[in-house]
Amino acid sequence: MSTLRLINPFNRALAFLLRLVPYGARLLLLALAGVLTALIVTLFKGSLDTVEESVGALGWTLNPETALEQRITIVAIDEKSLAQEGNWPWPRATMARLVTALNDAGVQLQLHDIVFPETAQGDDALALALQASRGAVLAQQPQLNSEQTLRTGVLSHPVSGVSCSDGLASTSNYIANNATFASIPKGHISPIVSSDGAIRKMPALICVDGSAYPALPISALLQALSTQVWGVSVTEGNSLFAPAQMLQLDSYPGLRIPLDAQGNMRISYRNLPETYQAISAADILNGDYDPAMLENGWVIVGATAFGIGDIVPTPYSGATPGVELLARILGSLLDTNVPYAPSGAALFMFLLSMVSAAILFVIAGARERFASYGLPIAGLLLPSAAITLHIELLGSSNIWLGWVSPALYCVLAASALMLLEQARVRDERSRVFGNLNAYLPSDVAKEIAFSLPSSSVNARRAEVTLLSADLRNFSAFSEARPPEESAALLHFFFVRAAEIVEQHGGRIHEFKGDSLLAIWDGHDAQAATQALHAAEQMQASIDRDMLPQHLPQGLEPLALGVGIEQGSVLIGSIGPAQRRTHTLLGDTVTITLRIQEMTAELASPILIGECAARQLSDQKLESQGSYLLAGLRTPHVLFSPVAADSPTRRSKSDTVSLSVVSGGRR
Questions:
Q1: How far is the C-alpha of 360 from the C-alpha of 175, rounded, in Å?
Q2: What pairing do the DSSP bridges indicate for beta strands 559-574 and 507-512?
Q3: In the structure, what pLDDT confidence band is assigned to residue 166 with cuts at 50, 70 and 90?
Q4: For an engineered disulfide with 535, which of 117, 232, 503, 562 has Cβ 3.0 to 4.6 Å away?
Q5: C-alpha to C-alpha distance for 634 and 510, rounded to whole angstroms
Q6: For residues 155 and 211, is the Cβ–Cβ distance under 8 A?
Q7: How far apart are CA 492 and CA 367, in angstroms?
Q8: pLDDT tens-place string over residues 283-341
Q9: Phi, psi of 215 (to 5 degrees)
Q10: Average pLDDT, stretch 534-553?
Q11: 141: helix, strand or coil
């Protein structure tokens, strides 16, 4: 029942669309596809965003950057380091040794993806080592979307020039370093974690208690500029192609960091993971490394061992150390090539959808075959084009345009138009079949409608019962009366005769002139009886009751003559492929027509051939004698039914006489 409830409104909607003019129905469906797209994008935003991000990253991964990143080196606290120095976290003295070793190696700036919230022995030594280095930045971690109150350590080094009321990400929870490290520059390491666990964005600034704290890579730039005051400014994008917001550092006027509307930086995955150099912290402590990898370079110290848990999925791997993401952000900042989505991305995708709608509208209005093949092809190619455009822009210009909305719209719009065109074709074919069925027998109409024409004979033998009925004297009547009156009379005859034939299990094979030919499958007693009853009802309903009895002077009265016979026929189609004709061939057809013609000669309204008469043993029949029918060479015995109220006459077959009527062969 539930299925029927869904199908009925659907069918009514289709019927409504089919009643509209074609272009109006197509425009309505294109509009409905747009509404449905917006609804789906709203309801399933999280899942669709994941799909868009996963496929969209192909702009980077299909043609990644393979050049080695020589400015940034990752100092990895890996399994080798843990095996040498012990489990994490290490003593502060060990960390102080690592900081000093990096400084001695000529490292220009150290970024530590590490937070030291608790007070521990050796804090002072580590703080002194950090202060003695050429440059160092520690991590601090504001807790975004945290449901628990957590405030550990002391946050430090906010930026000036921005207001937390400008829509920046904010929180009241954090994990920070203890007060011993208050003088060491800090940067946050709190990324945006997507629903699938991947990290694709990081807030440039996070507000805590009214102060804005920069991300660790931005803090590294500010520290490298040796400025005392960290001043920044955030401005709105000035064009549809510009990012939603732009972050500028007061001490670095040439650097403009693109942000989205929520103030996030997008992480670039253009570089292969292998492009980032990594040295084990154990090798640094042992002095076992190539000095050229560290001299005057920047290093990011962070955990890469699986046991520590700082592992995230990326487009390249399901298990990537988080320190690599910091290296990617820092590299993009140094290249001033941070990927971003233009502020007009939604408008561009809308325009792309409109272009796709116009293409689909044109295809749907084309010729039937072109539309039938064009719509499904367009339903595949247009979403592919949206994805390709996104991939090309991301690969060439680091512009994240997006593709899900136009691709989804194209699929829905193409599917809706295909459904409409399929329904329209089915409706038109149904009307064509109905029209064919009005002119031809249903089986013939079906064969014509659902098969391709050929130039060969397509016929089969069949045993049938035939009935030929003719309006006698109709030619003289039509000559004397207006054509409208003749047409009305002939129309009535055909309609009523067809009803009677179908009531008795037969079907009309053809109307020709003022006569008709009906057919019953089989040559048994049932078919013969049905044909006889149909003939008798025609005589009662048409000849005696409905044909005009008082005609103009000089005209013979109209009468109905019916001939019935059984036998073998060849039924099918013949003629060239471009002009076929359905035909019924064989002696049985000729004999039936000649028997009908004999009704006038013998003044008998119904005549039955001898083959059919043999099947009517339970009917009262009267022999009319044996006759050589026109155009035939074999005599045929004819019979007529005896009316129930008529006295039985002596059958003429008792004294057989052979007569030749006009048209016969002597």
A1: 55
A2: unpaired
A3: confident
A4: 562
A5: 27
A6: yes
A7: 40
A8: 999 999 999 899 999 999 999 887 676 788 899 988 889 999 999 999 999 999 999 99
A9: -70, 155
A10: 75
A11: strand
Place of tokens 């048994």: 524
Average pLDDT over residues 116-134: 95
Out of 3.40.50.720, 3.40.50.300, 3.40.50.1100, 3.30.70.1230, select the CATH number for domain 453-660: 3.30.70.1230
pLDDT at 572: 80
Range from 396-400, 474-478, 644-648 that averages highest in pLDDT: 396-400
> In this structure, are strands 298-303 and 109-112 parallel, antiparallel, or unpaired?
parallel
Output the six-digit token pair for 132.
């003695």
Looking at the DSSP assignment, which residues form a beta bridge with residue 7? Answer: none
136-142 vs 109-112, strand pairing mode = parallel
- Lowest-confidence region among 324-338, 539-553, 566-580: 539-553
Give the three-class secondary structure for 55: helix
Distances in Å between the Cα of 79 and the Cα atoms of 97, 244, 273 are: 19, 42, 19
pLDDT at 555: 62
State the sign of the Cα–Cα–Cα–Cα dihedral 217, 221, 224, 226: negative
Residue range(s) in the chain whose domain bears CATH number 3.30.70.1230? 453-660
What pLDDT is attached to residue 485? 82
**Bond before 641 cis per omega within 30 degrees:** no
Q: What is the pLDDT of residues 61-70, one digit of tens each?
A: 999 999 999 9
* Percentage of the chain modeled with pLDDT above 70: 86
What is the DSSP secondary-structure string of 356-406?
HHHHHHHHHTS-HHHHHHHHHHHHHHHHHHHHHHHHHHHHHH-B----HHH
The tokens 């129905």 sit on which residue? 25
Q: Which helix (H) or strand (E) holds 349?
A: helix 345-364
513-534 b/e (C-beta count within 10 Å ≥ 16 → b)? ebbbbbbbebbeeebbbbbbbb
Reported confidence tier of residue 554, pLDDT bands at 50, 70, 90: low
Sequence letter at residue 375: L
Which DSSP string do the residues of 186-215 spell out, in sequence order? EEE--PEEPTTS-EEEEESEEEETTEEEEB
CB atoms within 10 A of CB 145: 10
User: Tokens for 391?
Assistant: 């991939």
Q: Which residues contact 418 (CB under 8 A, 6 or more apart)?
A: 375, 376, 379
CA distance 298 to 108: 6
What is the CB neighbour count within 10 angstroms for residue 407?
A: 25
